[in-house]
Write a structure and sequence with these properties.
The protein is an alpha+beta fold. The protein contains twelve helices and 21 strands. Strand 5 and strand 6 form a beta hairpin. Helix 10 packs antiparallel against helix 11 and helix 11 packs antiparallel against helix 12.
């Protein structure tokens, strides 16, 4: 290829694709409308398939150096009773042991080694045009860029998706209409831990011995009000780790990041020389922590297909064929868990010890194998 792959968006998906293309010797350019990464002050949970993708990207040692190991997962009631637990290290194996990492550290890892001048910040896309030999994008500064392929890695509200596909495809998640995310002092949590009540769900994951990443949402599709009083009211009476972290973030609500939980379900991710990856293609509620994981996989698969030598539209079409079954599996398992989250607490207490471990295996089992091209 002589002309570059135009990557729109410099989040996890876009940076991962740039890294993979750079490794394959394929020219590229990234355009990002923001001047700095969004949500970089928060963290991201990386299950085993995300870790496997990072190994393929040559970042296995790096993630072991900055990511906090999450060896065990526990689901509890609002009163703290253990419903079931999972030995995640045993399930994924030592090479793919899950970790939690600050988003800023993950962005730094992915961008490390990319040549100067390939990442253009503060430049958004306003239009996308295709012809028989390539694609052009109009940029927010009035300039135009031309390449062999445009890749929408620009998130749930993707400009590329609207411009090239004409299909918004965004819907509210079944799990909850909105959520709170935050960082807080670690109250002694050394594992992935969630407490589920009839009105709300509260998750803590250690990022270090001193800090946790928190996620709170309504249970069963309800709204999580942007009024922070919703947090105090919904999680009153929850166990001490919940109360401690809530006390910390409510003392300074500027630490809280409130946003809708939105999903993208569309019938195609490729249109000739336009491709969608990551959340732009298939944003999914974070039930199984697959946002970053699927984005990292997308990047590796698309780069491999482009490097294989097929013409660009054929490689793009093959990307959709390869990725669709895996993403559909994640979406199906996400919907299944989201529906069961709304059952009464007494039903959950009776059924979760048996159905919980089985659901975990059903969701993650197929993801332990790398997708075949």
């Amino acid at each position: 290829m002589t002309e570059p792959v135009l990557i729109i968006g410099a989040g996890i998906a876009g940076l991962a694709l740039a890294r993979a293309l750079h490794r394959e010797g394929i020219p590229y350019a990234i355009y990002e409308r923001r001047t700095e990464a969004a949500d970089a002050g928060l963290a991201v949970n990386l299950p085993g398939n995300a870790i496997s993708a990072l190994h393929r990207a040559g970042l296995g040692d790096a993630i072991e150096g900055v990511g906090f190991p999450v060896a065990r997962r526990e689901y509890r009631t609002r009163r703290g009773r253990l419903l079931f637990g999972v030995d995640e290290n045993a399930f994924w194996g030592p090479r793919a042991a899950p970790r939690c990492v600050r988003r800023a550290d993950l962005h730094t890892m992915l961008r490390a080694g990319l040549p100067d001048g390939t990442v253009h910040l503060g430049l958004g896309v306003t239009a996308v045009r295709q012809d028989g030999t390539g694609v052009e994008v109009d940029l927010s500064d009035g300039s135009t860029a031309r390449g062999v392929l445009v890749v929408g890695a620009d998130g749930v509200r993707s400009t590329v998706r609207r411009a090239a596909f004409g299909d918004e495809g965004v819907r509210a998640a079944v799990l909850s209409a909105a959520s709170y995310r935050f960082m807080a002092p670690n109250p002694g949590v050394d594992r992935w831990a969630v407490w589920i009540g009839d009105r709300g769900t509260y998750l803590l994951i250690p990022v270090s011995p001193a800090e946790v990443y928190g996620f709170a949402c309504a249970t069963g599709g309800g709204p999580a009000s942007p009024d922070v009083g919703w947090l105090a009211d919904t999680f009153a009476g929850f166990p001490e780790p919940v109360r401690q972290t809530l006390k910390s973030v409510l003392a300074d609500p500027s630490q809280l990041y409130h946003s809708p939980i939105e999903e993208v379900r569309i019938p195609r991710w490729t249109h000739s020389r336009a491709v969608l990856i990551g959340d732009a293609a298939h944003a999914t509620a974070p039930v199984w922590a697959q946002g970053a994981a699927l984005a990292l996989e997308d990047a590796e698969v698309l780069a491999a297909l482009l490097a294989a030598g097929a013409d660009v539209p054929a490689a793009a079409a093959r990307f959709d064929q390869v990725r669709r079954p895996r993403v559909t599996h994640v979406q199906t398992q996400t919907d299944r868990f989201s529906r069961t989250a709304s059952v009464p607490g007494w039903v959950r207490a009776l059924t979760a010890p048996l159905t919980g471990p089985a659901g975990y295996r059903a969701a993650y089992g197929p993801l332990r194998e790398w997708p075949q091209l």
